[in-house]
Specification:
The complex is a heterodimer of chains A (201) and B (299). Chain A is α/β, with parallel strands linked by helices. Helix content of chain A is 30%, strand content 30%. In chain B, the strands form two sheets. A five-stranded mixed beta sheet of chain B has the order 2-1-3-8-9, with helices on one face. In chain B, strands 4-7-5-6 form a four-stranded mixed beta sheet. Classes of the chains: A alpha/beta (201), B alpha+beta (299).
Chain lengths: 201, 299
């Protein structure tokens, strides 16, 4: 049985999640990537979408005109780490509860998630048509002056996932933990290879 | 065929091929991903592989780009010196990209420097990027077309080492890039390593290494051995798909080299994400063509 998060998401909904858990999302998912973060945090512009209790997706979709509206062609996550410098403050100011992207994020986001009861989750990168198939509709678009990838696409999603929790509300970071393991394994492996590539004699 | 008709024919071929390769991965990548998927033992990693294959099936069924980031399109060309349309290649490829962008549709990814405006059609100053090699005594043209998303371009790095660092320094550099930036770049990655005497040479070769078919090995036995050692070593780390940790780490490791200066050894790394959208096509002087990367496909 899949665990479903529904917007508006409450703090209690995410507090019992832990890293490595898989969840799916029903409700509102808004694309917010580099420029949306930069405009809100660095430039102090008001975000044209109320995000309290909602989910954001680090993504720049391919969309197509559909009559008076828009339809999603492909929408997959982008590298979340680019938003690390802004995310803590972004979570504080907006009250967003679920941040979806690709790959891990850093200590600032971990602190923001713990302080404001939010989580970061990974949707498998490159799976943009799968993701698009879980988008019911695009309700509206804001900041289209930023171009197709950077605009805020307000979407209604159903069973959007799998979403792998990578940062929980208790200060745990799946990718940090994994990277520590990778770095530990790396030393002896590199040493062994170096013994065999001494071509400069 | 008149020259104008030839230009039209090649533009059609390249527009259709660029459109196609954003939606279908090449044969060697599909085979390798299948192999990695069946070897995978970790439950979380298996979930990710299942999503990847479901995604590819849907992209095919719905005729859509399999990843939303269709990249800043690059053409790495080996052009015969006697290819009749050498003067027209830039114009042909610009138009092919504009048409593929509308038809596929592809995401708009070309942002002009300083102006910081997205051009909205995937062409811009020097974009699509064209890398030229001229092949003597040949009347055809070979094009490697590549859509690299931003995610797998982010780890791209290079460093010029002093010879005292040796090939050991090269190995260390590659592993450092892979366990830091590589984790977020949509693994399992294809790893391209360029080795030469200055940074731009190494960087260019590291990208060209990504166009070699998976399973091929460097012609120099020491190069082939170094590829195998790095590949096995990276797999032992177990980065898994999307970095969630798993049985393997990479789709492959390819090295390309150029002779170096005695005082320097430059290394660069370029990686290709699992959705490695590259295509190889040969077009002959009579505008007949053969697709090398996706067997049996006609445009």
């Amino acid at each position: 049985m899949n665990k479903i998060l529904k917007t508006p998401i409450q703090s209690e909904d995410v507090e019992n999640l832990k890293i490595g858990d898989i969840v799916f999302l029903d409700g509102y998912l808004v694309t917010c990537r580099d420029m949306a973060h930069r405009r809100l945090i660095d430039m102090g512009m008001e975000l044209p979408v109320e995000l309290e209790g909602l989910a954001i997706l680090h993504a720049g979709p391919i969309v197509a005109k559909d009559g008076d509206g828009w339809k999603i062609v492909s929408i997959g996550p982008t590298t979340s780490m680019r938003m690390e410098v802004h995310e803590k403050e972004f979570i504080r100011q907006t009250g967003v509860k679920l941040v979806v992207g690709k790959g891990g994020m850093g200590p600032e986001t971990v602190a923001g998630c713990a302080a404001h009861k939010a989580v970061h989750a990974v949707f498998p990168g490159g799976c943009a048509v799968l993701a698009a198939s879980r988008v019911e509709k695009i309700e509206r678009v804001e900041w289209l002056d930023l171009g197709m990838p950077e605009a805020l696409w307000v979407t209604k999603v159903k069973n959007f996932g799998p979403l792998i929790i990578s940062i929980d509300t208790h200060g745990n970071n799946l990718f940090d933990r994994n990277k520590a393991i990778y770095n530990e394994r790396k030393g002896p492996i590199v040493e062994k290879i170096c013994e065999q590539v001494k071509f400069i004699k | 065929m008149q020259r104008d008709d030839m230009v039209t024919a090649m533009t059609d071929i390249m527009a259709n091929f660029t459109n196609y390769l954003g939606k279908h991965l090449p044969d060697d990548i599909m085979a390798k991903l299948g192999q990695l998927r069946s070897a995978e033992e970790k439950p979380l990693a298996k979930v990710v592989y299942d999503s990847m294959f479901e995604n590819l099936a849907q992209a095919d069924a719905l005729d859509r780009p399999c990843c939303q980031d269709t990249g800043v399109i690059q053409f790495f060309i080996k052009a015969g010196a006697d290819f009749p349309l050498l003067s027209d290649v830039r114009e042909i490829l610009d138009e092919a990209v504009r048409r593929a962008t509308r038809a596929a549709p592809l995401r708009h990814n070309a942002v002009e420097i300083f102006e910081e405006k997205n051009t909205g059609n995937n062409t811009g100053e020097r974009i699509p990027w064209i890398d030229w090699e001229i092949v003597p005594n040949d009347s055809g043209i070979h094009l490697d077309v590549y859509m690299a998303g931003g995610g797998c371009s982010l780890p791209g790095q290079g460093k010029t080492l002093m010879p005292a660092a040796g090939y050991e320094g090269v190995v260390q550099f590659v592993f450092d890039v892979m366990t830091s930036y590589g984790v977020n770049a949509c693994p399992p990655l294809l790893v391209g390593i360029g080795i030469g005497g200055s940074i731009e040479v190494a960087a260019n070769l590291s990208k060209k290494a990504l166009f070699r078919p998976i399973g091929s090995r460097h012609p120099d036995p020491r190069g082939a051995e170094m590829e195998r050692l790095i590949e096995d070593g990276l797999n032992e780390i177990g980065i898994g798909p999307q970095g969630v940790s798993g049985t393997d780490s990479v789709m492959g490791v390819h090295i390309e080299k150029a002779a170096r200066h005695p005082s320097t050894i430059s290394v660069a790394v370029s990686v290709g994400c699992w959705a490695h959208r590259r295509g190889a096509i040969r077009i002959n002087a009579d505008m007949s063509y053969e697709i090398l990367s996706h067997k049996g496909v006609t445009l």
